[in-house]
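User: quick one, fold this
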Amino acid sequence: MRRLTRTVAAAALATALALVGGCSSDSDSSDGGSGNGGALEKVTYLTSFGNFGRDSYAWVAKDKGFFKEAGFDVDIKPGQGTGSVIQTITGGQADFGPIDLTGGILQLGNGDAKDFVAVAAIQQRTMAAIVSVEGKNIATPKDLEGKKLADTPTSVVRNLFPTYARLAGIDGSKVTWVNGDAQGLIGLLAAGSVDGIGQFVVGQPTVETVAKKKPVVLPYSNVMQDLYGNALITSSKIAKEKPEMVKKFTAALLKGLEYALEHPDEAGEILKKNVPAAIPAAASAELKLMAAYVRSSNSGTAIGTLDSGRVAKSIALLQGAGALKQNLTPDQIINFDLAPKA
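Assistant:
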């Protein structure tokens, strides 16, 4: 994959590092009525990883009144990666949130999580990557040997790395991982404390803004082409007991996603309004990069679709790499009755 870069407005390091801190307003800015004609249903939504531009579509759905029109009062909170989002939702502290679908398969297939289902795709192919900067002598996957990388413990990039390493010809035992949190990863890279970080490919504009160096990106999709990116999940309990509510929420969120991709600059400003430390130009650049991942030849024109055959291929790839302890079928992780149809 050719390296994607975007030039974004320069911003102070302290401001950029605070990007993921955010808050939720008490109500949508739209004055539209609720979709059920009565009181709005309160929903807690987690972003996938902080409050970067790639997750701004949830704020768009809230700000433009899409959630309210569907009957929801949504509290948006910053997530901390796949494992953490799953734990928070299955623990009952949140209702919905996006996870990396491959990370979800790993969690379920290795007995690390249960009682959740995916109900829509956010990206049709994985955006997981190792991101470094020029001057670290990293140009190929093999160059990661002997290097220090940082990520959150529950991030899909980190948990999928052993599989990526096998397929990319890396001796994973020669790569050192250290813990970081969503707020601090790019700062660690900018400060030179680590050689690379777990990140999505669309994070390049923010990395460049903070580190003031050109990013070097090693996308996982170069060696694992069938994998989906993020998928919206909910608990198995909610999916079973409130299927219509799940469908309505999913439709409103995907409406926000489509609007954000069509109006990335406006979406960046909406994120800034709700998360004061956000950098609108970086957020907009992330969305522009993400657009190619949300739709693909596999999904046709509909946003959010999930294909059983592709999910089965992903499971088979992970099984072949020895990354799963138990066999899975696509319908164990996807509720196809609730997912959008192609």
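User: anything notable?
Assistant: The first strand starts at residue 41 and ends at 46.
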